[in-house]
Design brief:
The chain is α+β, with helices and mostly antiparallel strands and 594 residues long. The strands form three sheets. Strands 1, 2, 3, 4, 5, 6, 7 and 8 form an eight-stranded mixed beta sheet that branches. A two-stranded antiparallel sheet has the order 9-10. It has helices spanning 15-32, 37-61, 67-99, 204-220, 227-236, 246-252, 263-281, 283-300, 305-322, 329-343, 351-374, 380-404, 411-438, 443-465, 475-520, 525-529; strands spanning 110-117, 122-123, 128-140, 150-152, 156-162, 171-175, 188-191, 196-201, 406-408, 469-471, 532-534, 553-555. Helices cover 56% and strands 10% of the residues. α7 runs antiparallel to α8.
């Protein structure tokens, strides 16, 4: 009997994923190691050229291999080289952006600055509101009987205003305060609320966005006494209304992503759009409408990295389904990374950017492995949800340990129920706002339900924030924590592959013994027909019949042709054929009614 050798499924070529890997490996190490931008760019270009030449040479040598397998490695190397070339092109501009900063006047003579807000002003610690201002001009001190000197300025200035008023992205501001030359090289400015004056908007679209956002926040305000602040954070990204200490509780519980706009929030809103417009537009048009809504919502929320990444991935996935070309997570995540890194390379080094891509990458890479480990002990849906949380935690905890010196242990187990409660609160808030717009009397019951969900969610997060966690106070402890988390991730990823390899080796030995036994036996076709064959395949999804499972054993019995199904209907019942186990002339072994 000829043995059946296992055949691995061919890896699918994902050019955006490979190009994003090349871009990340070419962008982060030179900047984090503070290497000269010019030398790093030339080295990356030379490495990319060497990869392309090596791929071409290997393709010419691989004449005997199948065309698809021979070209796949060359295509992946070319995509990776394209990412390295993109990083080489971005590095000089990134270095120039970080170096160029000027008031246009001597720092000691500057008395006021003007510029445009780069993002919505948010509350920070100590009651300060943070304004990130793209400088346009500076104004010096005026001498007696003379006009104050003005000059063009460039660069990004961080302004901390005690009890500052809310301000939206795209608003032009004038801040009358003297910059301090000590902290951060003069790029930090402290001011009072009266020192900030609005000068208008940079464009009509920025003003329209601010008006829509204010109207939406105002529609949420009647929904209860405690819930509106959290509802505003969940639906618009504005955290000004959160209770004091609530943001720290979410962070300590490992659930800070719940109050940061990301894919979870976009999925809830997109599902509402699909539910409302699905019957009206049909399944194909509603995908286009949901993709357009995702991009519009990302613009309304300010276009920060997490929500813009989610919108790009959602829109790309919807359009790919519309074209009957479904894509894997790595492809859509790679496209989002390339677009956002090329749009603003400096944003690629922010914590929000790194956390959102690490979490999604961890889900794509580690969630199947975690699910494979949890499936024997938990129900299928519970294992899938918990595996997703554990995968995101495993991938992002190393960065959290390095940035904050803390690794929450209960975060993956609390994140799933907390996310469900947050989604329910969002649904209730949107439905309550719509009901209150139709009739103001409906705001009270909707607000009571929102407050109830708020209390449950905040109670759960508060209990999780008081749970034990790993504190890493010094750099040595941080390095040890990062190594521990990375080791856990590597073991979880490797364990299913090691188990599959053991199964393959075991059944390969059984097949070899089977071949040896067939060679020793006399040539009897009847005997070989009655032997069992093992279908050797790769491990399937959790809960499925993989290698070694009973579903993978295929006995080939004598007279193994499929018995035709009995046709129903007709005047006369047909006599049933004899079954295996019937005695000659008797059917006493048949069950009643057979």
């Amino acid at each position: 009997m000829a043995s059946v050798e296992p055949k691995a499924a061919p890896a699918r070529f994902e050019p955006a994923r490979d190009a994003a890997l090349g871009l990340a490996l070419g962008l982060y190490p030179p900047v984090l190691l503070d290497a000269p931008a010019g030398a790093a760019a030339r080295s990356l270009a030379a490495l990319a050229l060497a990869l392309v030449l090596g791929a071409l040479a290997s393709t010419r040598r691989a004449v005997a291999a199948p065309a698809g397998r021979a070209n796949r490695g060359a295509l992946r190397a070319s995509a990776f080289a394209a990412g390295l070339l993109s990083a080489a092109a971005l590095l000089p501009g990134l270095a120039a952006h970080g170096a160029i900063f000027s008031y246009g006047l001597p720092a000691g003579s500057v008395r006021a600055v003007e510029g445009v807000l780069a993002r919505d002003a948010g509350l920070g610690s100590g009651g300060f509101r943070r304004y990130e201002l793209e400088l346009a001009a500076s104004e010096g001190a005026a001498a007696p009987a003379s006009v104050a000197p003005r000059a063009d300025a460039c660069g990004t200035l961080v302004i901390l205003v005690r009890n500052g008023a809310p301000a939206s992205k795209g608003q032009r501001l004038r801040v009358a305060a003297r910059p301090d030359s000590e902290p951060e090289g003069g790029r930090l400015l402290f001011a009072e609320r009266n020192d900030v004056r609005a000068l208008g908007w940079i464009s009509e679209s920025a003003e329209l966005r601010a008006r829509l956002l204010e109207g939406f926040v105002g529609a949420l305000s009647p929904l209860g006494r405690r819930a509106p602040g959290l509802l505003s954070a969940l639906l618009t990204g504005r955290r000004d209304g959160l209770e004091p200490g609530l943001r720290d509780s979410f962070a300590a519980a490992g659930c800070a992503h719940i109050i940061a706009l990301s894919g979870e929030h976009l999925a809830v809103l997109a599902s509402i759009v699909a539910a409302l417009l699905g019957r009206l537009l049909g399944p194909r048009r509603v995908r286009t409408a949901a993709a357009a809504f995702a991009l519009a919502y990302a613009w309304l929320a300010g276009g920060e990295s997490p929500i813009l990444r989610s919108a790009l991935m959602f829109a790309y996935g919807a359009l790919a389904l519309l074209a009957d070309r479904p894509q894997k997570l790595g492809q859509s995540l790679g496209i989002a990374f390339i677009v956002l890194a090329a749009r603003k390379p400096e944003n690629a080094f922010t914590l929000s950017f790194a956390f959102t891509f690490l979490a999604l990458g961890g889900i794509g890479l580690l969630a199947p492995a975690w699910e494979c480990l949890l499936a024997p002990a938990l129900p299928a849906r519970v294992a899938k949800v918990l595996a997703t949380s554990l995968a995101a935690w495993t991938a992002s905890s190393a960065l959290g340990a390095a940035a904050f010196g803390r690794v929450p242990l209960v975060g993956p187990f609390v994140a799933a129920p907390a996310s469900l409660l947050a989604a329910a609160l969002m649904w209730c808030g949107l439905a309550g706002a719509a009901a209150a717009a139709l009739h103001p009397a409906l705001a009270a019951p909707a607000g009571a339900l929102c407050d109830l969900l708020y209390d449950i969610l905040v109670g759960l997060v508060g209990a999780a924030s008081r749970a034990p966690a790993i504190d890493l106070p010094d750099p040595g402890a941080k390095a040890l924590g990062i190594a521990l988390v990375a080791t856990i991730g590597a073991l979880v990823y490797a364990l299913p592959h090691a188990r599959e390899l053991l199964h393959r080796n075991r059944f390969r030995r059984l097949a070899e013994l089977d071949r040896a036994g067939c060679a020793a036996l006399p040539d009897d076709p009847g005997r070989s027909r009655h032997r069992l064959r093992f279908a050797l395949g790769h491990l399937g999804p959790a809960g499925g019949g993989g290698t070694g499972h009973a579903k993978a054993l295929r006995p080939e019995l004598p007279r193994g042709a499929a018995r035709p199904r009995a046709r129903h209907g007709g005047d006369r019942p047909r006599a049933r054929r004899g079954r295996v186990g019937d005695r000659a002339g008797h059917r006493g072994d048949d069950p009643p009614g057979a």
